[in-house]
């Protein structure tokens, strides 16, 4: 059993307080490692499969885009669970916080099994719809049918991450996720080459990593509590929160898919440069999300403990941390302006198009750092409906009109990234206004 929650009252005599920079870092840094573990493993997997030839590599790219839906659902589940568990932990009721994890795990298991079952008949049609040729589609479908068997474990791990972050336990998720991914990174080349399973070996290694990680979190949950029965009432409340996060996430997906579609109409060099910029943007967002995760946990705990002032103090500090992190990324990107695109391709045309993107990237990073931090604050506070509404408004009134204007008036990548700037700046203004208004700081264990 883990120790009971300590009251979230300010420390005396100079001791660490829940809103201290050290406390924020103690939650954000392990979260950053956990967030980075899966993408780093994907890079290893891609490198291993890439040596099998262009068709297997293309197959993983196609089927991996389908599997990303499961990862996206896992992120939504994790974020929703963190805020609810943190409120109960902050109120001194660790058992209720863990109970949120129990119900999230039931939901994760059901959704994961459903995805695994649906993928068996649908893998072929999906792969053929996305792939450019029949050979790639057949290989992608075969990989997907095996890899999707890891979906229950992937979603169980997401639910586990959610409740453990809520009770401010960052050590065990770090061990669980890193251990499983390191094992799989070792297993992948062994199964692909010496064992001779080829592309199937890559899929099996994915399943092993996700199943072991999910198993670790499930074991920790069983050790924590004996109350493991499903509670439909709590699950429905989690689904309501997840619905708003799902709609919000869908708006982001529409933005990025539309941006890629428009960029591709400006030529191969343009879409290549856009892909480089977009992947770097996603990487930076991943790192900045670590601050948001710390905010979710600390804000939820403060409000659950009845202290709106403490929640405001956390919000102020994580907002500063997010802004400074964004500035740090902007400086790194500025320093690498002449060399980073060359890491991805030697093509001079793509380099020239990347030079159009770079000023937008650099200028937006500090604003994005603040936006991501305040996203974490508002998710931790349970103010998800506001986030949903402002994301939809920024998408429909800012991003989408801007990029389609860029297409019709042939404004090139500059016009596409101007749309991204509108998306970030509208969210920045709205999130800062919401933070300053204090309307999000509703105390108590429910929202």
Automatic annotation (TrEMBL):
Transmembrane segments: 24-44, 56-79, 104-123, 143-163, 175-197, 203-222, 245-268, 280-306, 318-344, 356-374, 386-409, 415-433
Alphabetical UniProt keywords: Cell membrane, Membrane, Transmembrane, Transmembrane helix, Transport
Localization annotation: Cell membrane
Membrane topology (UniProt): Multi-pass membrane protein
Recorded GO CC terms: plasma membrane
Database matches in InterPro entries: DinF-like, MATE_fam, MdtK-like
A GO term for molecular function: xenobiotic transmembrane transporter activity
Location (main, coarse): membrane
Pfam families, alphabetized: MatE
Source organism superkingdom: Bacteria
Similarity section: Belongs to the multi antimicrobial extrusion (MATE) (TC 2.A.66.1) family.
PANTHER family reported for this sequence: PROTEIN DETOXIFICATION 44, CHLOROPLASTIC, PROTEIN DETOXIFICATION 44, CHLOROPLASTIC-RELATED
Protein name per the record: Putative MATE family efflux protein
